[in-house]
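Chapter review. Work through the record for Large ribosomal subunit protein eL14 before attempting the end-of-chapter questions.
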Amino acid sequence: MPFQRFVETGRTAVVSDGPNKGKLVSIVDVIDQTRVLVDGPNSNVPRGQIRLNQLHLTKFRIKFPFTASTRVVRKAWNDAKVDEKWSESVWAKKVAAKDKRIQLSDFDRFKLRRARSRRNKIRSLAFFNLKKAASRDGTLYGKKKMAKGGDKPKPKKGAQKPTGKAPKPKK
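C-alpha coordinates for Large ribosomal subunit protein eL14:
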Protein backbone atom coordinates (compact mmCIF):
# COMPACT_ATOMS: atom_id res chain seq x y z
CA MET A 1 0.00 0.00 0.00
CA PRO A 2 1.45 3.39 -0.91
CA PHE A 3 2.25 5.98 1.73
CA GLN A 4 -0.64 8.17 2.88
CA ARG A 5 1.17 10.62 5.16
CA PHE A 6 3.75 12.86 3.53
CA VAL A 7 6.01 15.54 4.98
CA GLU A 8 4.35 18.58 3.46
CA THR A 9 3.21 22.07 4.33
CA GLY A 10 0.10 21.89 6.49
CA ARG A 11 0.62 18.32 7.73
CA THR A 12 -0.26 17.99 11.41
CA ALA A 13 2.16 16.02 13.58
CA VAL A 14 2.67 14.99 17.18
CA VAL A 15 5.98 15.86 18.80
CA SER A 16 7.56 12.65 20.13
CA ASP A 17 10.61 14.02 21.88
CA GLY A 18 11.84 17.10 23.67
CA PRO A 19 10.13 19.70 25.85
CA ASN A 20 6.97 19.75 23.70
CA LYS A 21 6.48 15.98 23.75
CA GLY A 22 2.88 14.95 23.02
CA LYS A 23 1.78 18.31 21.59
CA LEU A 24 0.26 18.88 18.15
CA VAL A 25 2.10 21.02 15.62
CA SER A 26 1.72 21.84 11.97
CA ILE A 27 4.54 21.74 9.43
CA VAL A 28 5.00 25.20 7.95
CA ASP A 29 8.07 24.62 5.77
CA VAL A 30 10.58 21.89 4.92
CA ILE A 31 14.10 23.13 5.71
CA ASP A 32 16.08 20.14 4.43
CA GLN A 33 15.88 16.36 4.32
CA THR A 34 15.90 15.96 8.11
CA ARG A 35 14.44 19.21 9.51
CA VAL A 36 11.16 21.10 9.22
CA LEU A 37 9.78 24.40 10.47
CA VAL A 38 6.80 23.78 12.76
CA ASP A 39 4.24 25.93 14.50
CA GLY A 40 1.72 24.95 17.17
CA PRO A 41 -0.53 27.96 17.61
CA ASN A 42 -3.16 26.29 19.81
CA SER A 43 -0.85 23.89 21.65
CA ASN A 44 1.57 26.61 22.83
CA VAL A 45 4.47 25.29 20.76
CA PRO A 46 6.58 28.21 19.51
CA ARG A 47 7.50 28.43 15.87
CA GLY A 48 10.86 26.74 15.29
CA GLN A 49 12.74 23.95 13.62
CA ILE A 50 12.51 20.34 14.66
CA ARG A 51 14.00 17.10 13.36
CA LEU A 52 11.71 14.75 11.45
CA ASN A 53 12.65 11.84 13.70
CA GLN A 54 11.08 13.83 16.56
CA LEU A 55 7.69 13.92 14.80
CA HIS A 56 4.89 11.44 14.27
CA LEU A 57 2.84 12.46 11.25
CA THR A 58 -0.95 12.32 11.61
CA LYS A 59 -3.63 11.90 8.95
CA PHE A 60 -4.75 15.53 9.34
CA ARG A 61 -3.67 18.22 6.91
CA ILE A 62 -4.68 21.86 6.86
CA LYS A 63 -4.46 24.23 3.92
CA PHE A 64 -2.42 27.39 4.19
CA PRO A 65 0.20 29.08 2.02
CA PHE A 66 3.85 28.12 1.99
CA THR A 67 5.75 29.64 5.01
CA ALA A 68 2.57 31.28 6.36
CA SER A 69 2.72 33.39 9.52
CA THR A 70 1.53 32.11 12.89
CA ARG A 71 -1.67 34.15 12.57
CA VAL A 72 -2.53 32.45 9.25
CA VAL A 73 -1.67 29.01 10.63
CA ARG A 74 -3.88 29.65 13.70
CA LYS A 75 -6.81 30.69 11.50
CA ALA A 76 -6.48 27.63 9.24
CA TRP A 77 -6.09 25.40 12.34
CA ASN A 78 -9.30 26.74 13.88
CA ASP A 79 -11.22 26.60 10.58
CA ALA A 80 -10.25 22.95 10.07
CA LYS A 81 -11.16 22.15 13.72
CA VAL A 82 -7.97 20.10 14.13
CA ASP A 83 -8.20 19.97 17.94
CA GLU A 84 -11.72 18.49 17.81
CA LYS A 85 -10.81 15.96 15.13
CA TRP A 86 -7.70 14.96 17.07
CA SER A 87 -9.60 14.43 20.32
CA GLU A 88 -12.05 12.13 18.47
CA SER A 89 -9.30 10.03 16.88
CA VAL A 90 -8.38 6.57 18.16
CA TRP A 91 -4.75 7.66 18.59
CA ALA A 92 -5.70 10.48 20.98
CA LYS A 93 -8.01 8.19 22.94
CA LYS A 94 -5.20 5.65 23.38
CA VAL A 95 -2.86 8.39 24.62
CA ALA A 96 -5.52 9.61 27.07
CA ALA A 97 -6.10 6.06 28.34
CA LYS A 98 -2.36 5.56 28.81
CA ASP A 99 -2.11 8.79 30.80
CA LYS A 100 -5.07 7.72 32.92
CA ARG A 101 -3.45 4.34 33.67
CA ILE A 102 -0.24 6.09 34.73
CA GLN A 103 -2.23 8.20 37.24
CA LEU A 104 -3.74 5.14 38.99
CA SER A 105 -2.91 4.57 42.65
CA ASP A 106 -2.07 1.19 44.16
CA PHE A 107 -5.63 0.73 45.37
CA ASP A 108 -7.03 1.67 41.93
CA ARG A 109 -4.74 -0.89 40.29
CA PHE A 110 -5.93 -3.50 42.82
CA LYS A 111 -9.59 -2.71 42.06
CA LEU A 112 -8.90 -2.89 38.33
CA ARG A 113 -7.20 -6.27 38.69
CA ARG A 114 -10.14 -7.64 40.73
CA ALA A 115 -12.68 -6.32 38.20
CA ARG A 116 -10.78 -7.92 35.30
CA SER A 117 -10.63 -11.22 37.19
CA ARG A 118 -14.40 -11.19 37.76
CA ARG A 119 -15.07 -10.25 34.15
CA ASN A 120 -12.85 -13.08 32.90
CA LYS A 121 -14.57 -15.64 35.14
CA ILE A 122 -18.00 -14.59 33.86
CA ARG A 123 -16.76 -14.64 30.27
CA SER A 124 -15.18 -18.10 30.67
CA LEU A 125 -18.31 -19.55 32.28
CA ALA A 126 -20.49 -18.22 29.44
CA PHE A 127 -18.04 -19.59 26.85
CA PHE A 128 -17.94 -23.07 28.36
CA ASN A 129 -21.73 -23.18 28.65
CA LEU A 130 -22.04 -22.29 24.96
CA LYS A 131 -19.39 -24.86 24.07
CA LYS A 132 -21.19 -27.55 26.05
CA ALA A 133 -24.51 -26.73 24.35
CA ALA A 134 -22.86 -26.77 20.92
CA SER A 135 -21.24 -30.11 21.71
CA ARG A 136 -24.63 -31.58 22.63
CA ASP A 137 -26.24 -30.17 19.49
CA GLY A 138 -23.47 -31.55 17.37
CA THR A 139 -22.71 -28.12 15.91
CA LEU A 140 -19.35 -27.74 17.63
CA TYR A 141 -17.26 -29.20 14.82
CA GLY A 142 -19.76 -28.80 12.02
CA LYS A 143 -21.02 -32.40 12.26
CA LYS A 144 -24.52 -33.32 13.28
CA LYS A 145 -24.11 -36.02 15.90
CA MET A 146 -26.60 -37.61 18.18
CA ALA A 147 -26.58 -36.12 21.60
CA LYS A 148 -25.17 -38.04 24.52
CA GLY A 149 -27.48 -39.08 27.27
CA GLY A 150 -31.25 -39.43 27.11
CA ASP A 151 -31.82 -37.24 24.06
CA LYS A 152 -31.82 -40.17 21.59
CA PRO A 153 -35.06 -40.75 19.65
CA LYS A 154 -37.04 -43.71 20.95
CA PRO A 155 -38.46 -46.29 18.53
CA LYS A 156 -42.24 -46.49 18.15
CA LYS A 157 -44.09 -49.44 19.69
CA GLY A 158 -44.88 -52.28 17.31
CA ALA A 159 -42.30 -51.23 14.78
CA GLN A 160 -39.54 -53.62 13.91
CA LYS A 161 -36.00 -52.67 14.57
CA PRO A 162 -34.13 -52.16 11.32
CA THR A 163 -31.38 -54.73 11.02
CA GLY A 164 -29.64 -53.08 8.14
CA LYS A 165 -30.15 -56.13 5.87
CA ALA A 166 -32.58 -56.50 3.00
CA PRO A 167 -35.37 -59.06 3.58
CA LYS A 168 -34.84 -62.46 1.92
CA PRO A 169 -37.08 -63.15 -1.07
CA LYS A 170 -39.57 -66.03 -0.78
CA LYS A 171 -39.04 -69.13 -2.95
